[in-house]
Amino acid sequence: MPNATAHNRIVLRYGGAVLVVVAATLLSWLLHDLRGADVIFVPYYLAVALVAMFAGGRSGILATTLSTLIVVGWFSFGRSSSGEAVSVTVFIAASLIVSTTAEMLRRSQLHEAELIGERLVEQELELAEQDERYRLLAEHAEDFVSLSDEEGQRLYVSPSYYRRTGWTPEEVRNNDWRTRIHSEDHALVERTRVANLAGQTTSIEYRVLCRDGSSIWVEGRCKPITDAAGKVRRMVLWSHDITDRKAAERTLRESEERMRLVLQASEIGTFEVDLMSGEETWNTVEFELLGLKPNEADGHPETFLRFVHPDDNEWVRGKWEEAKRTGEFDQEFRIVRADGQERWLAGKGRIVDAGSKDQRQVRFLGVNFDITDRKRAEQAMRASDQRIRAILNTASDAIITIDEQGMIAGTNPATERMFGYSAEELVGQIIWVLISPPSLGEQDSALRHDRETESAGMKGIGREAIGCRKDGSTFPVDLAVSELDHCGFTGIIRDISEHKALQKQVLEISVEEQRRIGQELHDGTQQELTGLTLVAGTLLDILNAAPAKQANGDNVWVLDQPSYQQLCDIARRLSQRLAEANRHVQQLAHGIMPVQIDAEGLRSALNELATATNELNEIACRFDSSGSVAVANNTTATHLFRIAQEAVTNALRHGHADHILISLVHSSGQLVLEVRDNGTGFNVAATPRGARINGTQGMGLRIMEYRAGMIGGSLSVECAATCGTTVRCAILQGGGTQ
Fold it and tell me: Superfamily assignment of 142-248 in CATH?
């Protein structure tokens, strides 16, 4: 096809040249009667020029050759004179020049056309690439891009619109735009379309309806495209999804409204000061803090400063002036309200827009709120801390605060006395410097164990450990650890050396009592029972040796007088030995269970104690109790009896008393047991625990204290060197343990 097209162009060019020459010949024939070379060659000049101009230089040469041959051959021109020969020569030369020039022009035009064609191709490629970039941008951008005509019909809509709204291209093309815009925004969008048709570029915020019925907020910018006459032909709309921004704005408005309500409900005053003009704006709470109504003051800074307490006024003014330079104000001060009340306020504020080019926009924003209750609470807390501090200073137990890593943060004086360290030496040390640490694998988990036991409801429950003094000695302690609001621990350490020793002594006494009872059973009751067995055997031998005779068909054993008398003696001794064994067993039983389980058991037991003391020791000992005395339970009664028994024993063995009074009464809601004697007594204050009293280890007092503690009572001992001793144990009425 390309070769055929070129052939056709050649035929057209050269055939056209021949036709033009033929036309020129006809015209020359009509002008045959005219004389002159110029007239004859005029049609041929025109023919050559036209051919050369439209068909090119080669076609012009062909036209020149044909024209010359026709003129010379047909018209016999150029043979008669030299002038005609010159005319032919001039015609040929001029025609060749015209043809050559035309060819050069044609070639130049062709080259320029080729260049223009190449440029057009390049421009088309650039436009295609640009269109592709715009297409990719429109298809993959999150923003919505659309092109519509002046009637509002969508010519193009980016895919992001369909993805975001759920509408299909067919629904967008076939439905009115109002079906996709929120009804409340129809009027706004319509006004914007009118402005766009008038050639105005607009930017609005409106809601787009999605196919599922939901809506999204968009910010749309529409730019009209006009033709040469200025008529709007197209409109380009670029829309940006601002749903999140609108939600944030709504949240901000709601937050500001909540803050306004909170400030109003929490009685927080706000103020805003224009630092250039000095004008100040207060909210209603700010007036209320000063005891004013909004119409009673102008809200000027000087107005507020007049209400500052006279003792604080000068330095508050100074801090205010400093804040205007530094940009920060954070102070607590007193005011005197309009009604004369003295209150504490906390003021906080800062400069905003300090970097603005327009210095008239520099403002100081701040708040004031009443902290009177907090100040009073702080004063009460300081006073409470001084009570607590006094307790810590006088406590006999070591009280230690420990951080999360187990480091000692603080101690009380008892810690120094108990362990021999100063407070400065202990602070910053690990807790294991005072407590013998567990194995290395357990040290880090020890404090976590304490927190876990507290969370399981075991707060305050202690455990036994080994304390380590500065001098290297160790002693048993009771350690209780409790957590302080997840910021550390408090440890209470109690020296239980005496408690352990007392437990040991009580255990030894119990073992000794068991040994004594066993010895008594072996040496007394068992011997008695052995003797009774021998007597019973003798009795059996006598009966077996008695002769028998027949009487009325029955066997009758006959005893002589000596045998009968011997039998009577054996029966009497058997009765005496049985009575002695019974008495011995009763004494043992009384030692094991001294108080009978009945309402009057304690009174009976104490009365028997006084009677037995009289009989066995030949001294004056009596029991006094007026009215009915009820005891909570047998355990309480037994402990009270043992305390009285121990006090009587001490009065006899160590005090050498000859008069003892045991009393049991109710007094001021308490059950009180007292044992008074007229013995030698001793100085209780000068006798340390565990020391010897009258040459004997003083465990009796400690055991009595132990028993009193077991039943929730208190024990006191009053004595002097020459006027005897009074042991007193008091428990709440109905008190004691099961």
Answer: PAS domain (3.30.450.20)
